[in-house]
Every structure is written in structure tokens, then in C-alpha cells.
């Protein structure tokens, strides 16, 4: 492939990596990771609510990695309540998983920026045959893509397996019990998925630029090298 086309491909990959870093940083600070509806089970059972009456006992909840909001509704109107994970919910949530998600988000941002820098360096500079060359580009893209996948797996397990929404909904509730009526992942969670796919796409762009995967060597090159060694 001509050098000009390689520069264009590397520039595109660098811009995509930088955009992923910005997107991940923006996603961390929002509370749009999960949104759902919570049912005031105690209140609904007290009045035996059914049909349209049940809507008066359904509140809302949305949260991110650091803070969120829930609307507590038990037939007396919605009462909003702001909360933060640190330090309010630290004893209620699976703290090790939650902190791991934040750490992997930070690693994803770092390696997305590193990958963007090396993509631009390979586009406009003179690439070395070490970590500046194809090996490094594959490495940064692989690490960033892996971190994105780990973030989604860990956060999904925290929400679904450990029932994170119910633990938040029942935080500091003595007489009422809340149950998750419905929940779904929101925009910030899907941004992480898009970032993981973008880093995987960057690896394909490197291959499209003409660089083979660094850990695979051609058999022909090994045969030719052996023949040259025999000559000397």
C-alpha cells in the first residue's frame, strides 16, 4: 500500500482512539449507566394495588459509577433522593467490582490516548521497529479493547448478579421494601461498547494498511534466511 494511504489510515485510527478516550472520560462522570423503574412492594401490598393503581407505587432510578438519583414513590407522590457511591453506598455495593470498573475505565482512557499518539507518530513520523511500529499499534489496540470488554462484563455482573439497583433502592429504607420493576443499560454503558468495537476496528485498519500480525512470521522468510546462513 502506498505511504500516503497508510498515513490516512493511521490518522483515522488515531482520531478514533482519541475520540474513544474523550467518550470514556465523559461516560465516567455521568449517571447514565443504568436507568430503571423500582416498585414499592410494601406499599403496593398494603393497599393491594393492581392495574393503574400500581403506577402510583413505581418510582425511577438512574445512576453511574459515582452518583445517581432515585425517585421514591409509595402512593404519596415522588420524592427524589440524590446519592453517591463514595462513601455513602460503599458498604452496600460490591465495592471490589465497582472500584475495578473505575480502574479499568482509567486504563482504557490511558491506552486510548497512548494508541492515538502512536498512530499519529506512525502517520507523520518515522516509525521504529519496536513499540512504535506495528507491534505497538496492535498492543495498544488490544489492551484498550480488552479493558472495554472487562468493564462491560464486570459492570453487567454487578448490576444483574449482585442486584445493584435493588441495593441502591433499599438504601436507608427501614419500613418500605423496593423491588426492581425494570432496568436497562443507558447511554454511557453503550459508549464503552462502541469504544471497544472502535479499538478492534483499529486493529483491522493496521492489518489493512499492510502490516501482518506481529507474532506470526512467514515461512518463506524463514526459509530464505536459513539458506543465506548456509551460504556463509
TrEMBL record:
It is found in: Membrane. InterPro entries: Clarin (IPR026748). Pfam families: Clarin-2 (PF25807). One of its GO terms (biological process) is sensory perception of sound. GO terms for cellular component: membrane. It comes from the Eukaryota. Keywords: Membrane, Transmembrane, Transmembrane helix. It is a multi-pass membrane protein. The chain crosses the membrane at residues 97-123, 135-155, 189-209. Belongs to the clarin family. This is CLRN1 protein. It comes from Circaetus pectoralis (black-chested snake-eagle).
Amino acid at each position: 500500500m502506498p505511504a500516503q494511504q497508510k498515513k490516512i489510515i493511521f490518522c483515522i485510527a488515531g482520531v478514533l482512539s482519541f475520540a474513544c478516550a474523550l467518550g470514556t472520560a465523559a461516560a465516567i462522570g455521568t449517571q447514565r449507566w443504568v436507568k430503571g423503574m423500582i416498585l414499592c412492594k410494601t406499599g403496593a401490598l398494603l393497599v393491594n394495588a393492581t392495574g393503574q393503581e400500581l403506577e402510583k407505587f413505581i418510582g425511577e432510578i438512574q445512576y453511574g459509577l459515582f452518583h445517581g438519583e432515585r425517585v421514591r414513590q409509595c402512593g404519596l407522590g415522588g420524592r427524589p433522593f440524590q446519592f453517591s457511591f463514595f462513601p455513602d453506598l460503599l458498604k452496600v455495593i460490591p465495592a471490589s467490582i465497582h472500584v475495578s470498573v473505575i480502574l479499568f475505565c482509567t486504563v482504557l482512557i490511558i491506552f486510548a490516548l497512548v494508541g492515538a499518539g502512536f498512530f499519529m507518530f506512525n502517520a507523520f513520523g518515522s516509525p521504529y521497529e519496536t513499540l512504535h511500529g506495528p507491534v505497538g499499534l496492535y498492543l495498544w489496540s488490544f489492551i484498550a479493547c480488552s479493558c472495554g470488554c472487562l468493564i462491560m462484563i464486570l459492570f453487567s455482573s454487578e448490576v444483574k448478579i449482585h442486584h445493584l439497583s435493588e441495593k441502591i433502592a433499599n438504601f436507608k429504607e427501614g419500613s418500605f421494601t423496593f423491588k426492581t420493576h425494570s432496568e436497562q443499560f443507558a447511554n454511557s454503558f453503550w459508549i464503552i461498547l462502541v469504544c471497544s468495537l472502535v479499538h478492534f476496528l483499529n486493529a483491522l485498519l493496521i492489518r489493512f494498511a499492510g502490516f501482518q500480525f506481529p507474532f506470526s512470521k512467514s515461512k518463506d522468510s524463514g526459509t530464505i534466511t536459513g539458506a543465506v546462513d548456509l551460504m556463509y
